[in-house]
Amino acid sequence: MAKRWSKLKKEIESLFFEGISLAVHCTDMRKAIESHKYNGGQHYSIQSIGVFKVVLGKRIIWNFPNDFIDSENRETWPEQRPYSYNVSILNRIIRDYIDTPKNELFSKNFEQDVYGLTRLFLAADRRISIHKLKQYFIGIENHAVKAILSERTKSKTNLADRS
Predict the structure, then answer these.
(1) Residue 1: its pLDDT value, please?
(2) I want to staple 110 with a disulfide (CB 3.0 to 4.6 A). Which of 11, 33, 69, 118 is the partner?
(3) Taking the CA of residue 86 as centre, how many other CA atoms within 13 Å lie in the half-sphere pointing to its CB?
């Protein structure tokens, strides 16, 4: 995981606007799960789960799974649904964003991204001007997207707007 994650991390972060300090972090954890509880199996299976964070400066603006667990199921999630997420799903979302051509980013439906991660990447993408991004995100109430756009606006040299 470490070698592949570091390559993926480097690729996605290379798309971020240079004037902001935005980073994506992943901690991989492996957890033994009793298969017979969930799918009739007789053995334990090892599932790779992880903690993903998007950090702007020193502030965590997106945290998975913590931001997606509500107070009602905090004690039992993901034990109730252990297969509801794993590291590979979020890695595929990141890879899908990286592989999407610039001209398709506004129109593409990132089907697996129920977490809003690609919106953060889009707001930080150096290939897209801040003017276009502000128009696209009008009316969006997402604190993380707003924080990224605010940082881009504050930056003295917005390279994407020059081109």
Answers:
(1) 45
(2) 118
(3) 12
Upper half-sphere CA count for residue 149 (Cβ side, 13 Å): 22
DSSP code string of 11-26? HHHTTB-TTS-EEEEE
In percent, how much of the chain has pLDDT > 70?
A: 68
Burial class (CB in 10 A: 0-12, 13-18, 19+), 121: buried
Question: Domain tally for the chain?
Answer: 1
Q: Which two tokens stand for residue 102?
A: 């610039």
Q: Which domain holds residue 93?
A: 2-162
Burial class (CB in 10 A: 0-12, 13-18, 19+), 133: buried
Residue 133 Rama label (left phi>0; alpha psi -120 to 50; beta): alpha
